[in-house]
Amino acid sequence: MPTAALGLLCRGCLSRAQNRPGRSFSSWPRKMSRWNSEEPCSADPPQENPRVLITDLMFVRSAFISRNQYGPESVILSDIKKPPPHVYANGPFVYADVLDYRHLRELIVNNRITWLVHYSALLSAVGEANVALARKINITGLHNVLDLALENCLRLFVPSTIGAFGPSSPRDPAPDLCVQRPRTIYGVSKVHGELMGEYLHHKYGLDFRCLRYPGVISVNTPPGGGTTDYAVQIFHDALSTGQHECYLRPDTRLPMMHISDCHRATVEFMQTPECQLSLRTYNIAAMSFTPEELAQEIRKHLPHLKVNYNPDSVRQTIADSWPVRFDDSNARRDWGWAPTFGLEELVTDMLLSVRDKRTREGFPVS
């Protein structure tokens, strides 16, 4: 089959017409087709709504946004643990372990998946406490979804992170392309993912897409071992006890983003025609603040808030190796990225949302 025909069949990905002996891309002996980079840029051809599989419930709201656009049955959520009732009520949910290659393959084939959104990972501080498990989930799990995306010609999204940078990276701002050299297993695994995805895109035409998220702040995602989790916990503490103990120094500046902007960026990025993308991995930014600046903004609403700074050596060292700001000019230029929430809007929304959540769940609110 001519290369041009393969490109039309599969948008530059591995042709479904080819035989696929074996399961791993590293063991495939056959030749792969590649998107013809000299072909004129044009919009993607009209097609049916995507069929989306999302691994991990961390960013469940992305699914709800997509379901509003593509229909409730078009987006399948998955995890290894039982979700809350509202997840079942809003569309399909299935059990899926990213380390179980055969089961993942079954889900993709049986559900006619065309987009795979891979969120499953152990975060920075938790990963440092269990490096072996982080390596297994963050790298072996990634290899499984890369294999399956290439084999089934999927559009694959894998988020990266502020943690993909290291102490030798430019910090203010950190550009899309620079020295990275992270010093956590979480960061190392994310750089590995960025490079593997880019490699498979350039060599085999895989439609790999990646955004480097800053610290993401959400009322529905409880702190889960990330270095930026203080920026979520402080709202709960402000409305319960009025006191917060922060594990970072008061002047530790890091890039942050409201969850709504994070979801919207992801959906808009996935919808962008491939010909508009000059990179496979982009920084996205919204704001950058310190713990003390966040506390001061909260005190405009809750003047009684007291913050005790007790830096944790592990998380402080991690934070000190990360960028102060992201340069996201390429995302703004290529696909029109622009945030909605600044610090003032974030604080107002989070206080309202956390207050409502605590009231619904029967917890006291000060």
Structure description:
- The structure is a single chain.
- By secondary structure, this protein is an alpha/beta fold.
- It has a domain at about 120-360: Rossmann fold, CATH 3.40.50.720.
- The protein has 13 helices and 13 strands.
- Strands 1, 2, 3, 4, 5, 6, 7 and 11 form an 8-stranded parallel β-sheet that branches. A 3-stranded mixed β-sheet has the order 8-10-12.
- α2 (about 60-70) links the parallel β1 and β2.
- α2 (about 60-70) packs across α9 (about 260-270), α6 runs parallel beside α7 (about 185-205) and α8 (about 230-240) packs parallel to α10 (about 290-300).
- The longest helix is centred in the middle third of the chain and has 22 residues, at about 130-150.
- The chain is globular, with a radius of gyration of 21 Å.
- The N and C termini lie far apart (about 70 Å).
- Residues about 1-10, about 15-25 and about 25-45 have low confidence and may be disordered.
Which tags fit this structure?
Rossmann fold; single chain; alpha/beta; eight-stranded parallel beta sheet; 13 helices; globular; three-stranded mixed beta sheet; 366 residues
